[in-house]
Design goal:
With 163 residues, the protein is α+β, with helices and mostly antiparallel strands. Helix content is 45%, strand content 11%. A hairpin with a 2-residue loop joins strand 3 and strand 4 (140-142).
Length: 163
């Protein structure tokens, strides 16, 4: 995946906008597909959408920042969300987070690995309290996790990626 900061060709964006139409009521769907394509919403693309759809930049930015599922920061291929709700916290979710930070070499508040493979997020609740502690990797739920299970799961993903 090329860096979007050097992004010159808006052809993919044009295809997405044309697919949904330039009606402002389709903005959320357009942003969802753009995020799916680039793994985040690059600011250059938000400005381009505003111009091509003739929608105020503040409207586009407002939608992109209002919904929690949208991200203005690049995310890895694998987004790992660790629940830190009460049930998960009491059952050791903090040790899962620390294990992942160590294995992914994430320091100083950094959330995405340099190779853009992994992003670590902490969430308030995943709604799977009976499986606590829980983590979700790209929408797949992993329950009753331990640091050892976390290491094994990460090793499996790395192997899949050839690392």
């Amino acid at each position: 995946m090329s860096q979007v900061s050097s992004f010159q060709d808006f052809e993919k964006v044009n295809v997405i906008v044309e697919k949904y139409g330039k009606n402002p009521s389709n903005l959320i769907s357009i942003l969802q597909e753009i995020q799916e394509t680039y793994r985040y919403l690059p600011k250059e693309i938000l400005a381009y959408i505003s111009s091509s759809m003739q929608v105020s930049p503040s409207v586009v930015y407002g939608v992109a920042t209002f919904y929690e599922n949208f991200s203005l920061e690049p995310k890895g291929k694998y987004v790992i969300r660790v629940c830190d709700g009460t049930a998960c916290h009491v059952r050791g979710s903090n040790s899962l987070q620390e294990t992942l930070k160590t294995l992914l070499n994430l320091k100083d508040g950094k959330m995405t690995t340099d190779d853009m493979l992994f992003t670590l997020e902490t969430v308030s609740c995943l709604g799977a309290c009976g499986l606590a502690p829980v983590m979700v990797i790209n929408e797949k739920v992993h329950g009753k996790m331990t640091p050892d299970k976390t290491k094994a799961l990460l090793a499996e993903l790395k192997e899949k990626e050839g690392i």
